[in-house]
Write a structure and sequence with these properties.
alpha/beta; Rossmann fold; 17 helices; globular
Length: about 400
């Protein structure tokens, strides 16, 4: 049995851990991998003893050994260096008990830890890039392009690609980019496509369809806010279509800081009576989403958006919701064209916004819409085939 050290710079108690990491490692374990999972948990989550025990029991069901480490946020550079050192040290300690065949480093920091550790213990290294992190920092407004942090991060990213025995890309477009990197091309490093998968057993079409009045448009947004996630533009979008006479409202599901949300919504111009922020447990999200007619995803356009894989789009589609999204996000433009499951916004103009809402209204009248959305989710975001590709990559190292 292949022994895999799976390192991710997220917490298992965070929504990303709940939606992306736990289902994946459980599936890989069922396929025959002996998984040891290393996560970085927020201090407040480590104090949630009942929830920590619940997650541990879920992982133990599939004989997954879980090492939850403490995440340190500030000061940023020393904290990250501490986490890197801590992660490598813990990995070496674990090495004394188990001989790992593969180190799977997911996320940029998880990849840095995994790359260093794989070299030390002479294991194969898989870099699961989770998007082009250095470029994402530029698009999010945190770094300037070609600034010192950006250049250093790009060098580290290229180093991980050069040291990888296998690479996981989040989109078909990202896969093509990575395959053409000189060192990847020279080594003929295998690059596989694995999107941010959706648990399609949990996110399913509702048995009973929610009825909406003819004039209302109930929109929903879930997930991160700030940086590349331009909630102010979403606010402006809803404000513009309301000014044009559409009875649109927006529900935001996010644990983001309320002051930040209030500011971004105010910057976009949507009055408070027409939007609301709330948070629900991840387990309740599938049923909650069915109370809305369409999901939103607006991303800052720049040099990184083609490399991402928005889980929320897969979750919207899985429960039958069409999407309104900015263009050039991952493989989404092609998927919308293939399945007719949403509308894209190419520029942030009133004309473009009004054209998008007209397109949505036409889609909502289509009785086959929900099934097409579900089909798009099954064909693109399904967990089983994605994990099969990962497991095949692991097995290829035995040859």
């Amino acid at each position: 049995m292949l022994k895999v050290l799976y390192i991710v710079y997220w917490g298992a108690l965070e929504q990303l851990g709940q939606s992306l990491v736990i289902p994946a490692v459980k599936k890989l374990s069922k396929m025959g991998a002996d998984i040891t999972l290393v996560t970085f948990e927020k201090p407040k989550d480590l104090e949630r003893e009942d929830e920590m025990n619940r997650v541990r029991n879920i992982l133990t069901e599939d004989k997954i050994d879980w090492i939850p480490l403490k995440y340190h946020k500030t000061p940023t550079i020393p904290a990250t260096l501490f986490d890197l050192t801590h992660g490598i040290t813990k990995g070496l300690q674990k090495r004394l008990k188990k001989r790992f065949d593969v180190v799977h480093g997911r996320t940029f920091v998880g990849g840095l830890i995994g790359s260093a550790l794989a070299s030390l213990i002479r294991a194969k290294f898989v870099y699961h890039n989770e998007g082009f992190y250095p470029d994402e920092q530029v698009d999010g407004g945190f770094w300037a392009e070609n600034s010192r942090p950006h250049r250093i991060a790009k060098k580290l990213e290229n180093l991980m690609y050069s040291k990888s025995d296998g690479v996981i890309a989040l989109s078909h477009r990202a896969k093509k980019v990575i395959e053409n990197y000189p060192k990847v091309k020279k080594k003929q490093t295998p690059v596989i496509f694995v999107p941010s998968c959706v648990d399609l057993e949990r996110f399913d079409l509702p048995d009973n369809k929610t009825e909406f009045t003819k004039d209302e448009i109930k929109l929903v947004y879930i997930g991160s806010i700030g940086g590349r996630y331009i909630l102010d533009k979403i606010s402006r979008f809803v404000s513009v279509i309301r000014s044009a006479g559409y009875n649109a409202t927006l529900q935001i599901f996010s644990r983001a800081d309320k002051q930040l949300v209030n500011k971004m919504m105010a910057d976009g111009g949507l009055e408070k009576e027409f939007w609301n922020q709330d948070a629900v447990p991840y387990i309740e999200m599938p049923k909650t989403l069915t109370n809305y007619q369409a999901g939103l995803f607006f991303l800052a356009q720049g040099i990184s958006e083609h490399g991402c894989s928005p889980t929320k789009i897969g979750e919207y589609w899985a429960v039958g919701l069409p999407i309104i999204t900015t263009s050039n996000v991952s493989d989404t433009d092609d998927l919308i064209a293939d399945y007719a499951t949403g509308v894209t916004i190419k520029s942030h103009s009133e004309e473009e916004y009004l054209e998008a809402i007209e397109g949505l209204k036409i889609l909502l009248e289509d009785k086959g819409l929900a099934l097409r959305c579900r089909k798009a989710a099954v064909n693109h975001y399904a967990l089983e085939p994605a994990c099969e590709r990962q497991f095949s990559l692991y097995q290829s190292f035995k040859k």
